[in-house]
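Journal club prep, shared notes

We agreed each person brings one worked example of a sequence with its structure written out as tokens. Mine is Peptide methionine sulfoxide reductase MsrB. I'm keeping it raw so we can talk through how to read the token line rather than staring at a rendered picture. Sequence first:
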Amino acid sequence: MAEDANARDAHVGGDRPSRDKVVKSEAEWMSCLTPEQFRVARQHGTERAFTGPYWDDKRAGLYHCVACDAPLFRSETKFDSGTGWPSFFAPISPDALASHEDRTLGMRRVEVRCARCDSHLGHVFPDGPPPTGLRFCMNGTALKLTLDAAPEGEAGNAA
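Then the structure, token by token:
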């Protein structure tokens, strides 16, 4: 059991942010996020399964925090977990995320937040695929996808 916790901490990064912290008042967050983004990211909400953005998106790109634009996950680490939420097996870097114990809803889980702005992203579970064995189950509403540019010569080509 301690081995699982050590593996999780090694991949989640604890409370070691790698970039300058973004700190705003609740009013400032409300002014730059939609009501649903604010509810999920700033009030620790959860979108309903199979309803949020990106749960079934297969495009190549980089997933960022919707609140502060910090890069969080690469599409290459995304997998279909069958849960209805975007799921990843690893963050872009160990210190992109912060983990916190979550004892709400009568459960004991590990909450995942953006290390830069402390926005709630989702939870991490020890039932993911190799190579990490972790499943970062994220709210798509707390993410935004920046698509990779098409390789030169592919733009505008029809199949």
